Structures are given as C-alpha cells and as structure tokens.
C-alpha cells in the first residue's frame, strides 16, 4: 500500500471513529507499526489536520529461550519426557541432553515438581517417572503470552517467568490521534519549491506550500579528510605528548650520508650504504654544509678510533660522507638534535631531553604486499645523565602499554649506533605468535662523544613503523590499498577516527 492511500485510509477511519491508536491500527491492518508512525508524522506536517499525543505502554515479549520452550516444552518437561517408563541411569540421562541448561535446570525443576524420583537402591542411581502424565504449565503460560492473552496470566506467574529470563518487558511507544482543527479527508501534496511555471501561470496562489524546517540537519559540506596514516600518526603524537616528549623537525627528506650514516657510526662499507638499499641523489649529488670540527672527530673515531674506542680501522672518505641520500631512517634527525644539544650545553649545565619524530623514510626495497620504497617511522629519543638499559625497557613498556600492548619481549640485536640493541616483540593473538614490532638501543659513546656530549650523559632510542599498526587498525591487507594511486578515496572519507 502506498503512503498516500495509507494516509487517506487513516483519515477515513479517523472520520468514522473519533480516536485511533497507532499500535491497534497496526494490528488491525497488519501493517508494520513504524510505517504507520511514519505516515502519522507526515500528516502532522500538513498543519492542523490531526492532533497527536504520544503514549507509552508495556508489553511482554518472549526471550529466545522462551520461544524455544513454546515449541519444545519447558526444560523440566523435556527431562520428564526423556525418562522412559522403566527408568534410566542418571549419568546416561544427563549425557543425553546437548543443552546444559536443560540438563541442570530441567532436572532440578522436574525433581521439585515431583515429576521424577531417583532410585538409589542399586549402586548406580536410576531416575524414574513419579507421575504418568504432566501438565507443562510454563509452556502453557508462554504460549498465552505469545498470543497476547496476557490477562490469562497473573502477576506472580509473569514475575516467575521474568526471573527465569523466559519473558522480558518492553516499552512500546505509540500515538493516539484525533481530528485536528483543519481536519479534511484528503490531503493535497504540499509543494516544496516555487517554480517559474507557477509564477507565470499564477497557479502558486492555489498551491499549498510546505513550511521551512529550520531544525533540519544541513547537508554536511565537502571538506578535507585525513589519510588513515595521518589519523594514526595523530594518536602516536598524542601518546608522546602525554609522556612529555617534544616533536623534532622532520622536514628534511634529503639528508647527507654524514647525518644519515657517519654521525651514527655506520662504517662507510656497511651494506646499508649500497645502491641496492639506499636511494642516492643525482642532483644535487653532494652537500656542502657539514660541521668541519665535528666531521674531523667523526673521521677520527671511524678510521683510527678515539674516546677509548679502537674504531673500525679503515680509510674514511669525505666524498662518501657528502653524498646526498633520501633519508633511510629518522635516526638521522635524532643525530642532528643530539649534536645541537651538545653545542647548546657547552660551558653550561646539561639539559635532559625527551624527543620524538614521526615521518617518512625511504629504502630501495623490492616492493610487495607489505613493503613500499617509502614508509613512516615513529621514533623516541631520551638523553640524560646516567640512563641505563633498564630505563629504556621501562619507557618502551610504558609507551606500548598506552597503545594497549602489554605483552612485550626484548631480544638482543645489532645496530651500528646502539649497544646494547634490542628488538621488541609483541604476542599477536590472531597469528598465535610473537611478532617483531620495533627496534631500540642505547646510543654508543662512539656516536655521542664526538658530538661533544658530556661523558656521563647517555641517550636511548627506539623506533617502529607507522604502516603496520595502521593496516591492522583499519583492516587493510595490502599496503598498496593504503598508499598510492590504488587507494580508495571513499575509504579515506569513511574511516572513523583512530583511538588506540
Ligand atoms: N633506526 C632504527 C631502525 O631504522 C630504529 C632505532 C632508533 C634503533 C633508535 C635504535 C635507536 O630500525
């Protein structure tokens, strides 16, 4: 039935009877109550055609268990029926029920109703019927309630059924409608817009116009949306800020090999510095601005050793250090920041720092479903007097706890710039195994002392990727669905905020 005929029917019935209740009407016409309510609401918008008042009433509905009992009988009846005339061993009887509720509840109810008895004369208890026939009152009452014969069920019985969770009270909202001041049997469709034609013909004078609804929600304006990676980045940033960390400036995708590798005590022959692993720039190929004194100390510690270290003992080359690369990790920025800190504290008291960065890095990887040549790193660095490995483990635990990851393990590893170094693992419930989630370590004296930091100052750091947590959070399996031209923009619009 169309809404128009339904509204005309309602008006006709209202003309015959002086008042109508939406719920009774829905039963009478076998039409969904929501549909009737919808039509009443639209009639209301025509002005004073009808008058409405909302009405609340209570009703009992059967729960799922209650519905099952209407079909199969109460648990106690099921138990009684399962006992054969000659009796059955109690353990066998109990095993015959698949539903634990039937076995436990049904058995004890059937006992207290005195429908069955346990015969303990032999060594195995036997259950026997005590009566030849039973009247399943619970099933009967539930049946009445499901047929709305609610008056046949007394208050005590209702409370008992409710306690057994077989029925539940629901509140039903309905409308009582009466004729309004401008009651009429047919409603003309109201116009929402005045058209040029109406003006030209003058027909607007006869038309009914719909009132403006100033309470309507506007159409949300089209606006910018954060990419999933940026939403997750925002959350990580929040965690660092809550822990008192300051953000490092990360606006330097092109970095010299000096800051990306040499300052971090990565030897010039290290495989990470190969063409296969790192993107080198062709234009401009080299950089000019490397601090000269500091570079001399870095050269010394690499090639001959210094500050109590024997170094690597190789011929360190300035040409190599000047080569520009796309930074391979954000630790290049951490090195710059620690060097700045060392300059700042010359002749002054040392200032402890807690720093973080979250930004893009580049590696010449073979591309697959989980690897791209560019990704994002999240990195934390702390420098203070007398820090230990225990401090690093503690802060990493606190950091991951804020992400909701409590189950952490550390495994020793190797980094040229940290000693000791540790990989972090977290237990993945879905994969049923420990997965690597990051890398960390205590920065080496060979890195910190040439910078000019006081010898009693230690620096700790840890890093992890942004992509993996984002893919897990938004259920994305292929990294190409997250970045690049295959990204589904609708996904970007629709994804909810990230709360870690
Ligand atoms: N730079 C390391 C990486 O790329 C992470 C790291 C940061 C390790 C700081 C130790 C200290 O995996």
TrEMBL record:
Keyword Aminoacyl-tRNA synthetase: yes
SUPFAM superfamilies: Class II aaRS and biotin synthetases
Co-factor requirement: Mg(2+)
Keywords: Aminoacyl-tRNA synthetase, ATP-binding, Cytoplasm, Ligase, Magnesium, Metal-binding, Nucleotide-binding, Protein biosynthesis
Subcellular location: Cytoplasm
GO molecular function, one term: ATP binding
Any one biological process term the GO annotation gives: phenylalanyl-tRNA aminoacylation
EC number of this enzyme: 6.1.1.20
GO cellular component, as recorded: cytosol; phenylalanine-tRNA ligase complex
Chain ranges of the Aminoacyl-transfer RNA synthetases class-II family profile domain: 231-496
Family: Belongs to the class-II aminoacyl-tRNA synthetase family. Phe-tRNA synthetase alpha subunit type 2 subfamily.
Protein name from the UniProt record: phenylalanine--tRNA ligase
Organism of origin: Medioppia subpectinata
């Amino acid at each position: 039935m169309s809404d128009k005929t339904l509204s005309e029917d309602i008006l006709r019935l209202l003309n015959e009877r002086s008042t109508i209740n939406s719920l009774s009407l829905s039963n009478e016409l076998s039409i969904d109550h929501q549909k009737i309510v919808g039509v009443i609401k639209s009639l209301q918008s025509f002005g004073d055609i009808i008058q409405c008042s909302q009405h609340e009433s209570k009703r009992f509905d059967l729960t799922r268990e209650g519905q099952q009992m209407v079909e199969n009988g109460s648990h106690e009846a099921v138990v009684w029926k399962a006992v054969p005339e000659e009796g059955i061993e109690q353990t066998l009887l109990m095993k015959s029920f698949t539903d634990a509720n039937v076995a436990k509840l049904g058995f004890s109810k059937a006992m207290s109703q005195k429908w069955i008895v346990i015969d303990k004369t032999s060594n195995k208890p036997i259950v026997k019927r005590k009566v030849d026939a039973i009247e399943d009152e619970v099933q009967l009452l539930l049946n009445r309630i499901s047929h709305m014969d609610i008056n046949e069920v007394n208050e005590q019985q209702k409370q008992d059924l409710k306690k057994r969770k077989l029925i539940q009270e629901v509140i039903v909202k309905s409308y009582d409608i009466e004729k309004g001041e401008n009651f009429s049997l047919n409603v003309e469709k109201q116009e929402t817009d005045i058209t040029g034609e109406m003006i030209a013909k003058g027909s607007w004078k006869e038309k009914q116009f719909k009132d403006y609804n100033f309470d309507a929600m506007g159409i949300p304006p089209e606006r910018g949306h954060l990419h999933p990676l940026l939403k997750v980045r925002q959350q990580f940033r929040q965690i660092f800020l809550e822990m008192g960390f300051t953000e490092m400036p990360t606006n330097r995708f092109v970095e010299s090999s000096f800051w990306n590798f040499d300052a971090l005590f990565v030897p010039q022959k290290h495989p990470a510095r190969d063409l296969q692993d790192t993107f080198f720039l062709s234009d401009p190929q080299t950089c000019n601005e490397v601090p000269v004194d500091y570079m001399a100390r870095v050269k010394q510690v690499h090639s001959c050793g210094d500050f109590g270290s024997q170094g690597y003992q190789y011929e360190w080359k300035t040409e190599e250090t000047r080569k520009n690369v796309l930074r391979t990790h954000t630790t290049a920025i951490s090195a710059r920041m620690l060097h700045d800190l060392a300059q700042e504290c010359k002749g002054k008291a040392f200032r402890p720092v807690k720093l973080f960065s979250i930004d893009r890095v580049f590696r010449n990887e073979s591309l697959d479903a989980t690897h791209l040549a560019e990704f994002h790193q999240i990195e934390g660095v702390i420098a203070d007097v007398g820090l230990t490995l225990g401090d690093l483990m503690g802060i990493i635990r606190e950091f991951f706890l804020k992400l909701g990851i409590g189950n952490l393990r550390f495994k020793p590893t190797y980094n040229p710039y940290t000693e000791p170094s540790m990989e972090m693992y977290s237990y993945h419930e879905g994969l049923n195994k420990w997965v690597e989630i990051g890398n960390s370590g205590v920065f080496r004296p060979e890195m910190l002392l040439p910078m000019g930091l006081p010898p009693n100052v230690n620096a700790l750091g840890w890093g992890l990727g942004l992509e993996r947590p984002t893919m897990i959070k938004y259920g994305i399996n292929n990294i190409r669905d997250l970045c690049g031209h295959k990204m589904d923009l609708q996904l970007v619009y629709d994804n909810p905020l990230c709360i870690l």
